[in-house]
Structures are given as structure tokens and as C-alpha cells.
Amino acid sequence: MKLWFLLFFSLVFSLSILAKEKENRLYLKPKTVVGNSEIRLSDFTNWKGNWNPILFENLKAPKILDPESLALTLNVRYLKEFGDEIVYEVMGKEGILLPRTTVVGKKDLERSLWKELQENVDGSLGEEGQSVRLSSEKDSIQIISGTKLVWRNTGRTLHAGKRLFPLDYYFEGKMVHSESIPFLIEEKKKTYFTTREIPSKAVLTDADVALKEFFTADHNKEYMDESPAGKTALGVLTSDTAIEKKQVRTLHTIERGQEVQLVYTVGNLLLKIKTRALASGNRGDEIQVLNLASQKIIKARVQNEGICLLEEI
Predict the structure, then answer these.
(1) What CATH code is carried by the domain that includes residue 201?
(2) Element (H, E) at 115
(3) Taking the CB of residue 202, how many other CB atoms lie within 10 A of it?
(4) CA distances from 176 to 95, 99, 141, 237 (A)
(5) Domains of the chain: total
(6) Does the residue 68 lie in any domain?
(7) pLDDT tens readout for residues 113-138
(8) How far apart are CA 110 and CA 89, in angstroms?
């Protein structure tokens, strides 16, 4: 009976010791981004215990931690504070604390990226704002103090639009963190603007348009690089608007392939023949039309939309 009691007592005692050891076991996170205030044990480990000491304050540079040193610090700290010896076991590999304590403003971000782009993008970008300009979509960012910042994969070409640029942080020659910073890239373009509101189907004149330069972040739109005077607005164009190529087109009174009514008058006799235009033409132009009945080609003069005159047989 005594033997069974001793075995039972030993088992209970062993389990309590194992449970206590498990309670004092914690995991060190590989990387933790922190602020510049107090840093507690639970900030960079999985610790959830009531005792949660402040281990670091006001870090000015990344700090590397190893499990053995952290365990020793905790054991000594606990003994000093409570006078009781408890063994803490720290699992995991090396960890690092990355303090965000330095603020970089919008202009500094833009200058830094522009310098990197000038060195890597094919062709000369010139001065910022000469042909291309960029702007950070963040007014400022908090960076990790004590690290070297490197822009990564800026590419060999630069197009207008919104783009994320990866920013890497290096400490003691190793990359310890990375984030993406959003920027807006704008290209300078030269195109024709409207000087007044243009109604739909109106033919543009030189007085209706003016050549201007402007910056745009839209890389896909095709603007007019030659004067649109003489072309027809396919829709309403508002005043002082850059004209896109798809918004205007050269239209004729009669378009090639269009079915045309050929009219011929002899005295009081009026003849109408169905034909098809073999060329485009405006009012007064002479074009060739195909007689749909006889399949003969006839010369006719454009009079109005869908109508040509046969002046001679």
C-alpha cells in the first residue's frame, strides 16, 4: 500500500513540475517591429503570463536577441524582483527588435526615390518635373532607426500611373525588413485642348483648339499630337479639355461603302438610281459610285448626305 502511495505521489509531483516548466516556457519571435516607448516581454514573445516586465526602452537601433541570453535575463530579473527562483526556458532562434523611431517626410521620400530612378532607368530623366514628376501618396513614414534604406527593383523603364516601390532596410549588411511605398508617377505630354465647348458632330476649326503641355498619370490614353482642326467631334467636348484621338474623327459627307442615291435631272424628268460609294467625299467633291443594278462605275458629285448628282451621262 505504501509503495502505491509513493508511486502516486511521485507521479503527481513530476506532473506538477512538468506543468510548471511548461508554464515558464516561451517562444522568441524572429522579428518584431516596435515603437520608441516601453517594450515588454509579450511584445516580442508569445508570453501571456501576469508578470510582463519592461525589458527595453527608447531603442535607437535594431537589437538582436538570442534565447539563452533572454532566458538568463528573465531568471535574474524575476529573482531580483520577487526573491524567488524560477527557471524560464526560451524557445526559438535568434530574434531582432526593429524600432520605428525616425520620421521621413514626403519631400525626402520623393528626393530619395528620384535619385535612385536617375541611376537605374534607361534614358535620361533630366531634372524632376522636366518630363516626369513623382509624388508620394504618404505625407510621411516612420522608418527603422539605425538601418540603411535601399530602394529595390525600380526597373529600367518608368511609366505614368500609381506604383508601389519596395523599400528594404539593412542592418549589419543583412536585410531585416521590407515595405512598399505608394507613389504617383506623372508624364508630361503635349496635346491639343479645346478653347470652348464643342457640340457633338461639329467640325473643329483652328480657333476651337490650342496646343498645351500638361502632366498626366494616365499612360493608356492617346491624345492628339497633331491639330484636330477639320475633324468631327464624335461627342460633346467640354471647354479646356485635352482631346483624345478616339474623341474626333475625319468624317465625310459621304463615306466609302455607303449606299448613295444618285440623282439625274433632264428637264422636268428626275431620275434616282441606287449606287454605292467607292470613295469618301465631302460636298462638292467628285467621287466614283457603283450602279447596283448594272454594276457600272459612274462619276458623280457629292451634294448632300447620301445624295450625289450625275451631271453628265
Answers:
(1) 3.90.1210.10
(2) helix 106-120
(3) 14
(4) 11, 12, 17, 53
(5) 4
(6) yes
(7) 999 998 888 766 777 778 899 999 99
(8) 46
The kind and range of the H/E element at 8 are: helix 2-23
pLDDT in tens, 170-227: 999 999 999 999 999 999 999 999 999 999 988 899 999 999 999 999 988 999 889 9
CA 102 to chain centroid, in Å, comes to 26
Long-range pairs of 152-155 with CB within 8 A, sequence gap ≥ 24: 152/178, 154/113, 154/116, 154/117, 154/120, 154/121, 155/120, 155/121
CA gap 31, 42 in Å, rounded = 13
Question: How many CA atoms lie within 13 Å of 206's alpha carbon, on the beta-carbon side?
Answer: 0
Q: Are 98 and 168 in contact (CB under 8 A)?
A: no
Among candidates 100, 99, 89, 98, which has minimal Cα distance to 46?
A: 89
State how far the Cα of 87 lies from the Cα of 186, in Å rounded to an integer.
60
243 and 278: one domain?
no
Within a domain: residue 118?
A: yes
Regarding whether 222 and 274 lie in a shared domain, the answer is no
State how far the alpha carbon of 273 is from the alpha carbons of 1, 194, 288, 294, in Å.
126, 42, 14, 10
* Domain residue limits at 245: 188-249
Long-range contacts of 220-225 (CB under 8 A, 24+ apart): 222/246, 223/189, 223/191, 223/192, 224/191, 224/192, 224/248, 225/190, 225/191
Question: What residue spans of 40-105 are helical by DSSP H?
Answer: 41-44, 67-82
- Looking at the structure, tell me whether residues 79 and 6 fall in a common domain: yes
Cell of 271: 431620275
